[in-house]
Protein backbone atom coordinates (compact mmCIF):
# COMPACT_ATOMS: atom_id res chain seq x y z
CA UNK A 1 0.00 0.00 0.00
CA UNK A 2 1.32 3.41 -0.87
CA UNK A 3 0.52 6.61 0.93
CA UNK A 4 0.10 9.79 -1.03
CA UNK A 5 2.00 12.87 0.01
CA UNK A 6 -1.30 14.71 0.49
CA UNK A 7 -2.53 12.22 3.08
CA UNK A 8 0.63 12.60 5.17
CA UNK A 9 0.41 16.38 5.23
CA UNK A 10 -0.55 17.62 8.67
CA UNK A 11 -3.98 19.12 9.08
CA UNK A 12 -2.43 22.33 10.38
CA UNK A 13 -0.25 22.65 7.30
CA UNK A 14 -3.13 21.84 5.00
CA UNK A 15 -5.81 24.04 6.52
CA UNK A 16 -3.85 26.49 8.64
CA UNK A 17 -4.06 26.97 12.36
CA UNK A 18 -7.03 28.85 13.75
CA UNK A 19 -6.17 31.88 15.82
CA UNK A 20 -8.22 33.79 18.35
CA UNK A 21 -7.75 36.94 20.39
CA UNK A 22 -7.96 36.41 24.15
CA UNK A 23 -7.94 38.86 27.02
CA UNK A 24 -6.95 37.32 30.32
CA UNK A 25 -6.16 38.86 33.71
CA UNK A 26 -2.69 37.48 34.51
CA UNK A 27 -0.96 38.38 37.77
CA UNK A 28 -2.93 41.57 38.33
CA UNK A 29 -2.75 42.85 34.75
CA UNK A 30 -4.91 42.45 31.68
CA UNK A 31 -3.17 40.84 28.74
CA UNK A 32 -4.58 40.67 25.21
CA UNK A 33 -2.90 38.40 22.66
CA UNK A 34 -3.77 36.54 19.51
CA UNK A 35 -3.07 32.85 20.07
CA UNK A 36 -3.40 29.61 18.19
CA UNK A 37 -6.45 27.67 19.33
CA UNK A 38 -4.07 24.76 19.97
CA UNK A 39 -1.74 26.63 22.34
CA UNK A 40 -1.79 25.32 25.89
CA UNK A 41 -2.04 27.70 28.80
CA UNK A 42 1.42 26.57 29.93
CA UNK A 43 2.98 27.46 26.58
CA UNK A 44 1.10 30.76 26.46
CA UNK A 45 2.34 31.76 29.92
CA UNK A 46 5.92 30.68 29.28
CA UNK A 47 6.41 31.61 25.62
CA UNK A 48 4.11 34.61 25.17
CA UNK A 49 4.35 36.19 28.62
CA UNK A 50 7.77 34.99 29.81
CA UNK A 51 6.40 33.53 33.07
CA UNK A 52 8.93 30.75 33.48
CA UNK A 53 7.77 29.63 36.94
CA UNK A 54 5.28 27.46 35.06
CA UNK A 55 7.32 24.29 34.72
CA UNK A 56 6.60 21.57 32.21
CA UNK A 57 7.44 18.11 33.46
CA UNK A 58 5.27 15.51 31.79
CA UNK A 59 2.92 17.64 29.63
CA UNK A 60 0.21 15.03 30.28
CA UNK A 61 -1.29 16.34 33.53
CA UNK A 62 0.40 13.70 35.67
CA UNK A 63 3.12 15.58 37.56
CA UNK A 64 1.36 18.84 38.44
CA UNK A 65 4.49 20.98 38.06
CA UNK A 66 2.61 23.26 35.64
CA UNK A 67 -0.07 24.09 38.22
CA UNK A 68 -1.42 27.65 38.15
CA UNK A 69 -4.47 29.26 39.70
CA UNK A 70 -7.40 29.75 37.32
CA UNK A 71 -10.11 31.90 38.89
CA UNK A 72 -8.58 30.96 42.25
CA UNK A 73 -8.54 27.20 41.68
CA UNK A 74 -5.49 25.12 40.86
CA UNK A 75 -5.37 23.67 37.36
CA UNK A 76 -2.73 21.91 35.32
CA UNK A 77 -1.86 24.44 32.66
CA UNK A 78 -0.53 21.79 30.28
CA UNK A 79 -4.08 20.41 29.96
CA UNK A 80 -5.84 23.72 29.45
CA UNK A 81 -5.92 25.73 26.25
CA UNK A 82 -5.04 29.41 26.30
CA UNK A 83 -8.33 30.25 24.56
CA UNK A 84 -10.22 28.84 27.57
CA UNK A 85 -8.82 31.64 29.73
CA UNK A 86 -10.49 34.44 27.78
CA UNK A 87 -12.21 36.69 30.32
CA UNK A 88 -10.78 34.83 33.32
CA UNK A 89 -8.02 35.31 35.90
CA UNK A 90 -4.77 33.34 35.97
CA UNK A 91 -2.13 33.54 38.68
CA UNK A 92 1.41 32.21 38.60
CA UNK A 93 3.87 32.27 41.46
CA UNK A 94 5.20 35.58 40.10
CA UNK A 95 1.95 37.14 41.37
CA UNK A 96 3.20 36.79 44.95
CA UNK A 97 6.12 39.14 44.38
CA UNK A 98 4.53 42.41 45.49
CA UNK A 99 7.74 43.94 46.79
CA UNK A 100 10.81 42.26 45.26
CA UNK A 101 12.79 43.05 48.42
CA UNK A 102 10.66 40.77 50.60
CA UNK A 103 9.14 37.33 50.34
CA UNK A 104 5.46 36.55 50.58
CA UNK A 105 4.58 34.67 53.82
CA UNK A 106 4.04 31.46 51.86
CA UNK A 107 7.48 31.80 50.29
CA UNK A 108 8.97 32.55 53.72
CA UNK A 109 7.37 29.39 55.10
CA UNK A 110 8.79 27.25 52.29
CA UNK A 111 12.25 28.74 52.76
CA UNK A 112 12.29 28.42 56.55
CA UNK A 113 10.85 24.90 56.60
CA UNK A 114 13.14 23.84 53.72
CA UNK A 115 10.10 22.80 51.71
CA UNK A 116 12.10 22.57 48.53
CA UNK A 117 15.18 20.95 47.14
CA UNK A 118 15.61 21.17 43.39
CA UNK A 119 12.77 23.69 43.19
CA UNK A 120 11.05 22.22 40.15
CA UNK A 121 7.73 21.57 41.91
CA UNK A 122 7.99 24.56 44.26
CA UNK A 123 5.98 27.13 42.24
CA UNK A 124 3.12 24.63 41.94
CA UNK A 125 3.31 23.75 45.65
CA UNK A 126 3.31 27.43 46.62
CA UNK A 127 0.23 28.14 44.47
CA UNK A 128 -1.58 25.08 45.81
CA UNK A 129 -0.78 26.33 49.33
CA UNK A 130 -2.24 29.73 48.41
CA UNK A 131 -5.43 28.02 47.26
CA UNK A 132 -5.61 25.92 50.45
CA UNK A 133 -5.32 29.07 52.58
CA UNK A 134 -7.81 31.06 50.50
CA UNK A 135 -10.47 28.35 50.70
CA UNK A 136 -11.10 29.63 54.22
CA UNK A 137 -9.69 26.85 56.33
CA UNK A 138 -10.32 27.95 59.90
CA UNK A 139 -7.88 25.47 61.38
CA UNK A 140 -4.46 24.11 60.59
CA UNK A 141 -4.62 21.00 58.47
CA UNK A 142 -3.18 17.74 59.80
CA UNK A 143 -0.21 16.15 58.08
CA UNK A 144 -2.52 13.65 56.38
CA UNK A 145 -4.86 16.40 55.18
CA UNK A 146 -1.99 18.42 53.73
CA UNK A 147 -0.63 15.34 51.96
CA UNK A 148 -4.06 14.76 50.45
CA UNK A 149 -4.37 18.42 49.36
CA UNK A 150 -0.97 18.42 47.61
CA UNK A 151 -1.25 14.89 46.20
CA UNK A 152 -1.72 16.18 42.65
CA UNK A 153 1.81 17.60 42.54
CA UNK A 154 4.73 15.18 42.41
CA UNK A 155 7.96 15.95 44.22
CA UNK A 156 10.78 13.57 43.51
CA UNK A 157 13.27 15.15 45.93
CA UNK A 158 11.92 15.96 49.36
CA UNK A 159 9.81 13.10 50.66
CA UNK A 160 7.09 15.74 51.31
CA UNK A 161 7.54 16.15 55.09
CA UNK A 162 9.20 19.58 54.79
CA UNK A 163 6.54 20.64 52.29
CA UNK A 164 3.82 19.56 54.74
CA UNK A 165 5.45 21.65 57.47
CA UNK A 166 5.77 24.59 55.06
CA UNK A 167 2.06 24.46 54.19
CA UNK A 168 1.12 24.37 57.88
CA UNK A 169 3.52 27.23 58.65
CA UNK A 170 2.09 29.27 55.77
CA UNK A 171 -1.41 28.71 57.14
CA UNK A 172 -0.33 30.06 60.54
CA UNK A 173 1.49 33.04 59.00
CA UNK A 174 -1.38 34.11 56.77
CA UNK A 175 -4.07 33.50 59.36
CA UNK A 176 -2.15 34.91 62.33
CA UNK A 177 -0.60 37.88 60.59
CA UNK A 178 -3.81 39.01 58.97
CA UNK A 179 -2.08 38.85 55.60
CA UNK A 180 -3.89 37.56 52.55
CA UNK A 181 -2.47 34.46 50.98
Topology of this protein?
Blueprint: H1 5-8, H2 11-15, E1 19-26, E2 29-36, H3 41-48, E3 67-70, E4 73-76, E5 89-91, H4 105-112, H5 122-134, H6 143-149, H7 161-176
Parallel strand pairs: 1-5
Antiparallel strand pairs: 1-2, 3-4, 3-5
Protein name: Caffeine dehydrogenase subunit gamma
Keywords: 2Fe-2S, Iron, Iron-sulfur, Metal-binding, Oxidoreductase
Domain 2Fe-2S ferredoxin-type: 20-96
Structural description of this entry:
By secondary structure, this protein is α+β, with helices and mostly antiparallel strands. The protein has 2 domains: 17-95, Ubiquitin-like (UB roll) (Roll), CATH 3.10.20; 98-176, DNA polymerase, domain 1. 34% of the residues lie in helices and 15% in strands. The chain has 7 helices and 5 strands; from the N terminus they run ααββαβββαααα. The chain has helices spanning 5-8, 11-15, 41-48, 105-112, 122-134, 143-149, 161-176; strands at 19-26, 29-36, 67-70, 73-76, 89-91. A 5-stranded mixed beta sheet has the order 2-1-5-3-4, sandwiched between helices. Helix 4 (105-112) packs antiparallel against helix 7 (161-176) and helix 5 (122-134) crosses helix 7. The mean pLDDT is 90. It holds the Pfam family Fer2_2. One of its GO terms (molecular function) is metal ion binding. This is Caffeine dehydrogenase subunit gamma. It is an enzyme of class 1 (oxidoreductase). Its EC number is 1.17.5.2.
Amino acid sequence: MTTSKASTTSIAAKYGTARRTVTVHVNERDVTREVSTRTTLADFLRDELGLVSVHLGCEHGECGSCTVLFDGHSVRSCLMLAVQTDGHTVETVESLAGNPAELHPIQEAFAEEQGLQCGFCTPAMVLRTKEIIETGRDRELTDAEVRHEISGILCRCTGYQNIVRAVQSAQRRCRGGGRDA
